[in-house]
Amino acid sequence: MFFLIQHYRYVLLFIAALMILFGLFRLVRKHSETLTKAAIFGYHIGKGKKWLNFLILLALIFNCFMIPLEMRQSGKTEISLNYAKASQGLNPNGTRFNPAGILSEEILEKAIRKGAFPDLTASDLQQALSVSPKVQGNSYDENGYFISTQFVLSYQATEKTASLDGETLLSLTAEAYKEWFIQEYSENVSALNMDFSDIGSEDYLDICEQLRKKADLIKLYMAGMANEDPAFQSSSVGETFQSVSSQAKNVSDVMAEKLEAYLLENGVSKASSLYMSRLSFENMFQYFDAVKAHRSNQNNLAAISMYENDMARIVLVPTYDTDFQFYMSHTRIGIDEFAKTAEAFANDKTKINGEISRNNHILNQLSSRSYAGGQDEKAEELVQQTEKELHHLAEKARALVEEYSAGQTNQYITITAFPWENRFSSILLNILAFTFLFALSAHFVSFSLTAGRQSGRKEAGNAVQEKKK
Amino acid sequence: MKKEKKSSRPKRKWVGGVLVGLLSVVVCLTAAFGWIWFSNRNFEETFYTLYTSKIDEPVRAVLLADLHQAEFGTDNSELITRIAALEPDVILIAGDMITSGSEDLDYAVGLCERLMAIAPVYFGLGNNENETVYGSDLNADFFLENAGLLGDSPENFEPLVKDNSLLTGLRDAGVVIVQNESVITTVNGNKIEIGGISTNLSSFWPNSGQFVYRFAESDSDHFKILISHRPDPVMEYIAGYRLDLVVSGHTHGGIVRIPGKGGLLSTEGGFFPEYDAGLFESGPMTMIVSRGLGGHGVIPRIFNSPELVVIDLN
């Protein structure tokens, strides 16, 4: 039955072709130009053709059921990607977008679960569905380069899916993909979870460093979001990404700084001797690194001085830019590489020396003050204030991101369905066209039989007359 | 003898023509009625997915509307089996489960009992239930006539109840009837508030409007669903309200659907009802109108299969 439904229009075409061939065969066999002409003018589609016309009516009724059934065995749904990176062929997080993901096992199983089709497997559904870009680019010439942001999900029934509604399957698959996509690429706000439970046991200066890092994390997260949409303002908290980023910077620059200043000023530490020995140990390794960076810097400078006179200073290479304009390109050569490496080692050395100096300053402060160690009330208060402010900021940032995300991610994908109702005119046209074709071929057969009989009778009459003569 | 034969031929032709004509009419009518009968006894499923920040864990709701005591399988076994397979978290009924005048109220109670075994059922009354319970389709004239009974609370219809058996039966089955009231429930960890109205355009104000206003304007952190049997009062009076989802029926999809054009007939009279079926959006509100599962009256559903609506909230 499935085969018949799927190939119904071909079967109709085949029957019509057979009938026309049969009619032609009859006409050619009994060919007589004048008699055929007479038969054409004498042929009446209604007169004496009641059973033939009844047969055509039956064909029309049959077509009314079968052609819509056949045409509903296929369908299409459009999936459009509406985020900025889609035009570069990327997902919202910058990874490569792969349209084949729409037909992944995970998505199809989700669609089957949503539709509650227990007898259908993901592989059955995969065979019935296909994805293609709506507009296909090519790589032959630059004008043909095109990254499609619209994809057509097509359905062609197979024996296993024939009993199900194709439109429902398409809609469920597209929605399952949209759900997955939103879940996968919506903003992950877990980075904004401010958990300070594990830093309470650390020494104050380490706590200060951790608090500063947390503040920087909020600052950078918000700055990144501000780059995406600088104009977005929350309707619930009334903040922008930029304003929350600035507030986080204030926490780092003012509150954490104030805590550090207090700790250093008063030499406050929970266990100063332990902290001081750790810093001294750290300084020893920093010193080795500084010496290494210094020596490397010296080696590179020595290399430059050795070869400077023998090596070309500048090499210019003639080339074209992207607009096909000629220009001389300055190409990096060996001596440039030496200079660059020497500079990098010098920077490293400066940075390490800075850290050593800072550690020394802390060591001086801790050793010169008469702080007994243990908890300090003022330091605890400053830590708590900073933590509270970071909690508040993180909540604000999360609300902001969630509000922004809800508006954005839900728009990442648009699904456009093409219900069969919209194909009604096409279905109607097909029914009429195929019924007309059947009627035409049936009448042609009838005509060929009539014309054959007439010409036969006429020829027999002529033969009798000739005999009489 | 020859003369007699010649005179009988045209008569035989005429009789044959009439026979073929009659046969054609019979075949056409059989095909048409057979198709209408078949398509009215099988329901389709329409899936909608709504995305909202008010829902943390996905929720699936199944919407039944305008059953009019229709049967899909013996004792609606096909309908029940399918709904169970769809695993809804909540079942919403947008009225007209029965047809007014019918004595068989066990249909609604029996079906709801079986639905309750699948998921909690929230029932918004339709005009047919109103006629059975209050003896009228709650229009403005009815309220004017019974203003004395209502007193100072025009939105409490309890004093107007004439036959309580349906409401009692449904409540005993565990169904939550929402008539100018709302209930807050927790579904998959999500707080959802479900309210219901059954008034029409003439009686929405003052007999439902205040409730809907309070419902929409109250705490907006949770998801709000309004069951309104009729879609018209919603789009006429409260289109901009902060309701997340409104589910309706009543229109029967326009009874006869013109492909590409929509519903032809309005159950309120007239042609081409505006809110015949499908999803409509108005500001923050989404309204889903079901084509319904049954029908009544002489005009059959044409190009309009019964519809079971499945709504996924993500």
Q: How many distinct domains of chain B? A: 2
Give the number of helices of chain A: 13
Q: Based on the coordinates given, report the CATH architecture of the largest domain in chain B.
A: 4-Layer Sandwich
Computed Rg of chain A: 42 Å
Report the β-strand fraction of chain A as a percent range.
Answer: 5-15%
Q: How does the overall form of chain A come out from the CA principal axes?
A: elongated
Structural class of chain A: alpha+beta
Find the structural class of chain B using helix and strand composition: alpha/beta
Q: Order of strands side by side in the largest beta sheet of chain B?
A: 1-14-2-3-4-5
Give the low-confidence spans of chain B: 1-5
The proportion of residues forming helix of chain B, as a percent range, comes to 25-40%
Mean pLDDT of chain B: 89
Biggest interface reads: A-B, 30 and 28 residues
Outline of the structure:
The complex is a heterodimer of chains A (469) and B (314). With 469 residues, chain A is of the alpha+beta class.
Description:
The complex is a heterodimer of chains A (469) and B (314). Chain A has 469 residues and is α+β, with helices and mostly antiparallel strands. Chain A contains 13 helices and 6 strands. Chain A has a 4-stranded antiparallel β-sheet. Chain A has a two-stranded antiparallel ribbon with strand order 4-5. Chain A has 4 domains: 2-71 and 422-468, no CATH class; 83-185, no CATH class; 190-266 and 376-401, no CATH class; 272-372. The model of chain A has no long low-confidence stretch (mean pLDDT 85). With 314 residues, chain B is of the alpha/beta class. Chain B folds into 2 domains: 1-40; 44-313, Purple Acid Phosphatase, chain A, domain 2 (4-Layer Sandwich), CATH 3.60.21.10. In chain B, strand 6 and strand 7 (190-197) form a beta hairpin. The longest helix of chain B is centred in the first third of the chain and has 39 residues, at 2-40. The N and C termini of chain B lie far apart (88 Å). The chains are: A alpha+beta (469), B alpha/beta (314).
